[in-house]
Write a structure and sequence with these properties.
It catalyses: (7R,8S)-8-amino-7-(carboxyamino)nonanoate + ATP = (4R,5S)-dethiobiotin + ADP + phosphate + H(+); (7R,8S)-7,8-diammoniononanoate + CO2 + ATP = (4R,5S)-dethiobiotin + ADP + phosphate + 3 H(+). By secondary structure, the protein is of the alpha/beta class. The protein is about 40% helix and about 20% strand. It has a six-stranded parallel sheet with strand order 2-5-1-8-9-10, sandwiched between helices. Strands 3-4 form a two-stranded parallel sheet. A two-stranded antiparallel ribbon has the order 6-7. Helix 1 packs parallel to helix 2 and helix 7 packs parallel to helix 8. It is globular. It starts with a strand and ends with a helix.
């Protein structure tokens, strides 16, 4: 398990993880790579339906729901309350069973070349009261793509994410820069320059994928993730 998986994390909630995960999967499909996406945990969702982030992935990929979506393999843990997983679970009198995520990933890896695993919130979001998303990635040594954004404060959050991943020896294969909302081109340009400088400082491949505003999930353009994929393959050598 987690042998053919890439983790998609964000610098915070609503950084654009679902969009990037869907776009990455769409590009992989265009390269004839057998790919599926997985959501680590979904909160704030009707537990009787397919998780909304998985639905978003399929809309961007322009494909129907997979059988693994319908049987909940791609998202085995869903809670109603929109909060951190540990709290959403507690409000239902439950705790998060991490083994469900691990077992689902193994099932998916048995059938697909690559699994893109989208996180919930940022790196330090508690999955349980004493186990964070960062702990999960570190435990399984999963190559990770970090999603940043152009929102105010993103430089701070991005550099902190790079620093903590480096400290934990988590392999970073690139940075996806969500340009929405692109309110200030000066900030956009400067942020990319800062990110390139710090990727070099931490000896991380200086791959930054620019993600433009997506006006329609169904008609989104194919964005080239080849440099990110190559960084992933280089790690596997």
């Amino acid at each position: 398990m987690f042998n053919n998986t890439i983790f998609i994390t964000g610098i915070d909630t609503d950084s654009g993880k679902s969009i990037v995960t869907g776009l990455f999967a769409k590009w992989l499909l265009s390269q004839n790579i057998n790919v599926i996406t997985q959501k680590i945990i979904q909160t704030g969702c009707d537990t009787s339906k397919v998780a909304e982030d998985i639905v978003a992935h399929r809309e961007i990929m322009n494909v129907d729901l997979f059988k693994e979506d319908l049987d909940k393999t791609t998202n085995p843990i869903v809670f109603k309350h929109p909060a951190s997983p540990h709290l959403s679970a507690a409000l239902e009198g439950k705790t998060v069973d991490i083994s469900k995520i691990e077992e689902s990933n193994k099932t998916l890896e048995d059938s697909y070349e690559i699994v893109l695993l989208e996180g919930a919130g940022g790196l330090m979001v508690p999955i349980t009261e004493d186990f964070t998303t960062l702990d999960f990635i570190e435990k399984h040594k999963i190559p990770t793509l970090i999603v940043s954004s152009s929102k105010l404060g993103s430089i701070n959050h991005t550099l902190m994410s790079l620093d903590v991943c480096t400290t934990r020896n988590i392999p970073i294969i690139g940075l996806a820069y969500n340009e929405f909302p692109a309110n200030d081109p000066i900030i956009l340009k400067d942020s990319v320059k800062i990110f390139e400088r710090y990727l070099a400082k931490y000896n991380i491949p200086s791959t930054i994928i620019s993600i433009p505003e997506i006006k329609s999930k169904h008609s989104s353009s194919i964005i080239d993730f080849s440099s990110t994929l190559q960084n992933y393959y280089d790690l596997k050598k």
